[in-house]
Structure formats: structure tokens, C-alpha cells
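New to this. Help decode both lines:
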Amino acid sequence: MSVSSRHPLQRLNAPSRGFSALVHIAGLTSFYFSFQFLALFPNEISESYGWHFQFLTIIGLGLATATFVFGLISDVFLSSRFFAWKNTLAVVSAPMEIDKALVVPPGFELDTMVDIGFHLAPAVFLLIDILLLSPPWAEGYAQAFSIPSGIAVAYFFWLEECYKHNKFYPYPLLEQMTYEQRVALFAGSALVMAGSTVALRAVYRRLW
């Protein structure tokens, strides 16, 4: 993708070896230190089936890392193919913030800087990438609801599989719910994610 071929609503040049590459390098550096923290400070989750990828936050962090790897490759080689892959991942990898009291296991507390690395930093970097360094995505409202629904279903069955091995859920809230209540919770989460996707599209269009 050349600079001249970018979408007219995409005001900043991406991929590029300037600002775009700097954002992707900064994001990957932040993500690296977050994963390094998980490796250096193991806990019960570290030894369980599914590792920390039982947490939606860490899955989101992994997707954000993949997004920025593709983004940096597209910057270095000015590759339209990797740029397209980056844009696709960026749409689905923005993490959602939820009440930590419901989802953080007892005794698993993070200091402020580590917490920022896991929750705030990925959201900020992905928003910068989506709003400033990506063209408007073409997905319609059907995709806005089908993609979050697919993620919710896959994550639901992934947690159930982990429970078969570990005999506990990573989120204390799920321990207190019946199977039907968990289904309802994930269905509601899919709707919230879909609403966030639609809202983000609206922000993009209003901004540019």
C-alpha cells in the first residue's frame, strides 16, 4: 500500500516507517513487559490448564500483540497484505474493561503500573491504531454482531474446557453461577461488545 492509495478518510500514513511504526514499536514494548510479568511471577493460574489465556484480558493482550506485529511488519516492508491483516485483527482485539472485583481471583492483585499495562495500555494503543492508522472497516451491522457472538461462543466453550481440567473457573463470578446463567452472561457480553463496535465506527466517522 502506497501513501497515495490510502483511504481518503485515513488522515495519517499507514503503513509507514514514521509515526505508524513508532506506535507499533511502543505498543509491542508495552505488551512484552506485560507478558514478561506473567512469566516472572507465576501463580495458581500459571500452573493450570490454559495458563493465563483463561482470562479474556490476556486473550485480548495476545490479539493486540498479533495486531501490532502485523502492523510493524507492514510498516517495515510497506506490505498491503500485512496491513490488511492488521486492520482485520484491530477491529476484534480491542479489550473490554469490566469490574475487576467480579473477575480477578482472590489474592491476585496488581500494582497500578502493572494494571495499566494489562488493561489501559492495550486499549489506548489499539484506539490510536484504529482511529488514526487504519482505514474505515467495511464490515456492516451483521458482522458487528456476528463477530462478537463468535468470540463469546468460542470463549465460553474454552472456559468450560479449562474447567474440566482445572475444576475451577478463573473468574470468581462464574463459580457462583449455573450453566444457564453463564450462557446468559456471555450472550449479554456479546451484545455489549457489538454495541461497542458500532459505537467505535460512529466515533471514527465523526472524527474524520
